[in-house]
Amino acid sequence: MLEHPEYLKHRKWMNHALELARVAGDAGEVPVGAVIVDMNNQLVAVGENRKERDQDPTAHAEIMAIRAASQVLQSWRLHQCTLYVNLEPCPMCAGAIVHARLGKLVYGVDDTKTGAIRTVINIPDHPASNHRLKVVGGILESDCREQLQNWFATQRQQK
């Protein structure tokens, strides 16, 4: 059975996010990677978790990618862009996504502890949100979940 072209595109970029997450995990960070593409499906910016390396609590993958994309595009308004991230964004990142006016968010696996897109709270659809965001969840969900679970299991074994 042939897969829908939109799903194939999502898989391509989620695989890229997973590779960035692997790099972050190898560096001792929680393995989260983010990719931003434009309306022509061209790569604009990437980010990976850097909290430990930068000693910066705001250095989440999504924030790093949003900052980089804004610089590349010379605009904080990213309404024609899509953000791919392997883990559902936290409240801080969900707020940044809304404020950046991203056109679409595609994420891999729900975060049952701090997910702020659909799982624990829903920032984009909250009445206080001034931007409506298209959201696609569950892309390469098993791969995303497995990568995170394996990383956390390894961290527990090392302690």
Could you characterize what this model shows?
Belongs to the cytidine and deoxycytidylate deaminase family. ADAT2 subfamily. It catalyses: adenosine(34) in tRNA + H2O + H(+) = inosine(34) in tRNA + NH4(+). Catalyzes the deamination of adenosine to inosine at the wobble position 34 of tRNA(Arg2). By secondary structure, the protein is α/β, with parallel strands linked by helices. It has a single domain, classed as 3-Layer(aba) Sandwich (Cytidine Deaminase, domain 2), CATH 3.40.140.10. It has five helices and five strands; from the N terminus they run αββααβαββα. The chain has a five-stranded mixed β-sheet with strand order 2-1-3-4-5. Helix 4 links the parallel strand 3 and strand 4. The radius of gyration is 15 Å and the shape is globular. The N and C termini lie far apart (45 Å).
